[in-house]
């Protein structure tokens, strides 16, 4: 008999612990070996921690903040908060001191869990923390407490000892949870202005996990890797809520740079990555294909990759695939490419997915040629992560697929995508002004994205409403439609196009120093200073050829007329990217104002 409200995520954990007590729930990698926690032990760990939080005086609807990496303690602290009827908020580790201070003062956490001394030092310097003195808990012990912090192991051990006396309170708190109650606050990336805390509820997250299951994307033994920041709504979905729904198994990867290792060890059945991660994996796959293990099988690789790419491209363009090509593709998947997928750790990945930003067709095509067909999804923090996605085997050019079961999509007169869904947030914490702008008069959520629905019912995203460039001639231009054709080509990494109120479009192109040096070596160019290489005639000529190729697919107003090559990479840490790897356009505009002005100061050739 379930002792929690059937409307809460707590009921999902209780159900899995009862039905699958000895099945694996969460694992971590220590010295090359998996250490696994079963569903029964996971449930007990959460309840012990919830009792410990009650010891600290946590009340229903108060907030617990977590500044930590992807580890079991993070997941447990999050779920324990929910079991107390309270609300979690995970803090991005890359936030600046100013951004951390904003989230802390807005969320007002009663308890803050940090992973170690460095995070503790950042938290204790925040003015709100100094003034309000929340309880501080550190996961990693490093000597005696310096700020009155409590050690996680001692805290949870005490909670286990006090479980019985808190049992009635915990049951009462969980039984009182309703679908509309907040389970977490997820703060938006804040491409402009301070971030806002989207309220996500028990009901919205339960619906989201159930809708993904009904869409057939978890009809297998769920095995996923938790590696993106848990402050990202998508990572919360894959790491916390979907496993609760499916009884799946999650491996915690503490550092994204170790992802390739974790893929090889765990071989997940579900793997979601943002486009930036897929691009990094592509580079690793190219090195693998050129390695001695596969270079001797080059002819076989080329033949089979060509077969899979042709078969995928015809389906991608909604073209019929001849039976002979389908059979050739089936055989190609069984040969050397199966060994390649195994070496990458993707041989058991039934659902390779991408989201958060558009992924280039070249990246999708590359992986399709290996037998890894990436599906794309679309959603917002405010829609609890996903509102539309491609189903397995239905990927098509330019589409992000069909709405999830129960979600509805409407295109407004100005092209904006509006969403009605049980996953929609009820609003932002402490922001009635922003809530008024978030919904229309009928209650449909404004996404801020521009799109269309095709004759098959598939959603196509064409741009961000606020990112649209309107040139001096009054032409509306989609920057992302231009940028994805250049980004990732040759030594070019990222692209930002610019042209609002200007006569034509220009672009800033980043070229990481390591890419430039590799190109220089290949071309026999002397010199090792990246800042000098970006001005070398051969480098500029190659960049121009990439831009010209992109321009050949664009209308004249969309074409990049001039560009500036920068020997750098925009990162989250340096402030040009959001934590979900979106361009902070206003930041880049401000920092490169002189570069952009110079592009318009040049005389026409």
Automatic annotation (TrEMBL):
InterPro entries hit by this protein: AMP-binding_CS (IPR020845), AMP-dep_synth/lig_dom (IPR000873), ANL_N_sf (IPR042099)
Superkingdom of the organism of origin: Bacteria
Domain called AMP-dependent synthetase/ligase: residue spans: 13-428
Keywords: Fatty acid metabolism, Ligase, Lipid metabolism
Keyword presence, Coiled coil: no
Stated family: Belongs to the ATP-dependent AMP-binding enzyme family.
Protein's name according to its UniProt entry: Acyl-CoA synthetase
């Amino acid at each position: 008999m379930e002792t929690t409200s059937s409307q809460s995520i707590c009921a999902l954990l209780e159900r899995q612990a009862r039905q699958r007590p000895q099945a694996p729930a969460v694992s971590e990698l220590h010295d090359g070996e998996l250490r696994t926690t079963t569903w029964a032990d996971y449930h007990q760990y959460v309840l012990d921690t919830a009792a410990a939080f009650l010891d600290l005086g946590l009340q229903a609807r108060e907030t617990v903040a977590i500044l930590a990496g992807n580890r079991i303690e993070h997941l447990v602290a999050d779920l324990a908060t929910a079991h107390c009827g309270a609300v979690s908020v995970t803090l991005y580790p890359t936030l600046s001191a100013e951004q951390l201070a904003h989230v802390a003062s807005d969320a007002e956490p009663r308890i803050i869990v940090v992973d170690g001394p460095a995070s503790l030092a950042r938290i204790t310097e925040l003015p709100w923390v100094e003034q309000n003195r929340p309880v501080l808990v550190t996961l990693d012990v490093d000597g005696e407490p310096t700020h009155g912090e409590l050690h996680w192991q001692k805290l949870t051990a005490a909670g286990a000892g006090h479980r019985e006396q808190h049992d009635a309170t915990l049951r009462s708190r969980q039984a009182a949870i309703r679908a509309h109650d907040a389970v977490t606050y997820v703060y938006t990336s804040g491409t402009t202005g301070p971030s806002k805390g989207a309220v996500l509820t028990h009901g919205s997250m339960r619906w989201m996990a159930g809708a993904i299951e009904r869409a057939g994307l978890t009809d297998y033994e769920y095995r996923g890797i938790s590696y993106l920041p848990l402050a990202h709504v998508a990572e919360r979905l894959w790491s916390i809520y979907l496993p609760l729904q499916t009884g799946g198994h999650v491996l915690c990867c503490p550092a994204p740079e170790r992802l390739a290792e974790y893929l090889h060890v765990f071989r997940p059945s579900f793997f979601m990555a943002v486009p930036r991660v897929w691009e990094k994996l592509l580079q690793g796959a190219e090195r693998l294909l050129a390695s001695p293990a596969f270079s001797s099988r080059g002819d076989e690789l080329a033949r089979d990759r060509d077969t899979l790419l042709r078969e995928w491209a015809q389906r991608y363009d909604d073209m019929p695939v001849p039976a002979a090509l389908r059979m050739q593709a089936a055989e190609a998947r069984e040969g050397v490419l199966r060994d390649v997928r195994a070496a990458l750790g993707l041989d058991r990945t039934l659902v390779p997915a991408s989201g958060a930003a558009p992924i280039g067709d070249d990246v999708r095509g590359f992986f399709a040629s290996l037998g890894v067909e990436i599906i794309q999804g679309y959603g917002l923090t405010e829609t609890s992560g996903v509102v539309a996605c491609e189903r397995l085997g239905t990927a098509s050019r330019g589409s992000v697929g069909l709405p999830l079961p129960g979600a509805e999509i409407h295109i407004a007169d100005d092209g904006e995508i509006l969403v009605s869904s049980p996953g929609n947030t009820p609003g932002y914490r402490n922001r009635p002004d922003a809530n008024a702008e978030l919904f229309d008069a009928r209650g449909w959520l404004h996404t801020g994205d521009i799109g269309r629905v095709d004759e098959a019912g598939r959603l196509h995203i064409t741009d961000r409403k606020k990112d649209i460039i309107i040139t001096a001639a009054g032409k509306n231009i989609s920057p992302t439609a231009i940028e994805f054709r250049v980004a990732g080509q040759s030594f070019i990494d990222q692209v930002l196009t610019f042209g609002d109120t200007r006569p034509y479009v220009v672009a800033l192109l980043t070229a990481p120093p390591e890419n430039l040096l590799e190109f220089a070596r290949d071309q026999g160019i002397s010199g090792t200073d990246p800042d000098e290489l970006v001005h070398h005639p051969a480098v500029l000529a190659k960049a121009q050829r990439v831009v010209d190729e992109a321009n050949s697919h664009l209308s004249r107003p969309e074409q990049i007329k001039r560009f500036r090559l920068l020997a750098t990479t925009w990162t989250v840490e340096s402030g040009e990217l959001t934590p979900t790897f979106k361009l902070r356009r206003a930041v880049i505009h401000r920092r490169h104002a002189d570069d952009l002005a110079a592009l318009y100061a040049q005389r026409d050739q």
